[in-house]
Specification:
This protein is of the alpha/beta class. The chain has helices spanning 18-24, 30-38, 57-62, 76-89, 125-135, 155-167, 207-215, 226-240, and strands at 47-51, 68-73, 94-98, 111-117, 136-149, 191-205, 247-260. The protein starts with 17 loop residues before the first helix and ends with a strand.
């Protein structure tokens, strides 16, 4: 994938790191899932479509709600690893499909809820919004979720970003600051905002988990050569020696709940 607005237009592919993604990207806290449930996302019997699902992190963690989930992604490799995780966990209420967010191929009015976790910025926002509004049932929910690490508030994260930029100077997935919500252009005429909820939380990682998390990110494993990935990992392991475990790293979680018009 290449997008002019991301990484100076350089190519990246999360399918390259599907193995690491399936192992190290199940990082969202239980508090986030509890909040989604309180917002009527995951009610028994709901049909929920998760766009840009990767290895189906959200559907797997919310499968206990007895909603029915469909996990979609443009990467066949990501979808295949998601299927493997679901089989291993014995989960039976998640289906999969390889497709884009802008052209899902589903019938209109098919879903009660559409979710997009940590991925909406990769979509063509206007086309994706058109598709989401088309496939949602009247009064259906679109929930946009993302989680940012906070490099200016957390020394470990700030140091990590500087190292990634050493190996990938065009990486634009850095420098996050406190989020301030504005009603987006893509939602106008299609959606009404019902809830905006943001909060800070410290997530715990072992060093191995955090290294895996960073290698699976766009700026490293999804874009660098294997040789540079190995060099990055070796240098980062050295930098982390001065920190004790578990690492408690500050993140900000954002949840936006929209109702289709």
């Amino acid at each position: 994938m290449k997008l002019n607005k991301i990484d100076n237009g350089n190519e990246f592919d999360f399918g390259r790191v599907s193995r690491e993604y399936s192992k190290f990207r199940d990082i969202y806290p239980e508090s986030m899932y509890e909040k989604l449930i309180s917002l009527d996302i995951g009610k028994p019997g709901q049909e929920i479509l998760d766009l840009g699902s990767g290895t189906a992190v959200l559907p797997i963690n919310m499968s206990r709600t007895r909603a029915h989930f469909t996990a979609t992604d443009i990467s066949e490799n990501q979808v295949n690893y998601g299927r493997q995780l679901v089989r291993e966990k014995g989960i039976y209420n998640i289906d999969f499909k390889v497709c884009s967010a802008e052209n899902t191929g589903f019938e209109g009015n098919s879903f009660d809820v559409v979710t997009a976790v940590q991925c909406f910025h990769y979509f063509n926002a206007d086309k994706a919004a058109d598709e989401i509004s088309r496939i949602l049932k009247p009064g259906g929910i679109f929930c946009k979720i993302f989680m940012d690490w906070l490099p200016y508030e957390d020394e470990v994260i700030g140091e990590m970003e500087r190292l990634v930029l050493k190996y990938n100077p065009d990486w634009s997935g850095c420098g996050f600051r406190e989020f301030k919500y504005e009603f987006p252009e893509w939602a106008k005429g299609k959606f009404e905002i019902e809830t905006v909820y943001s909060y800070n939380t410290a997530l715990e990682f072992t060093k191995e988990q955090w290294i895996g998390r960073i290698i699976s990110c766009r700026g490293v494993g999804a874009s660098l050569s294997q040789d540079k990935i190995r060099q990055f990992e070796a240098e980062y392991r050295g930098l982390l020696r001065k920190y004790s475990e578990p690492l408690k790293l500050l993140h900000q979680i954002h949840i936006e709940k929209y109702i289709v018009k």
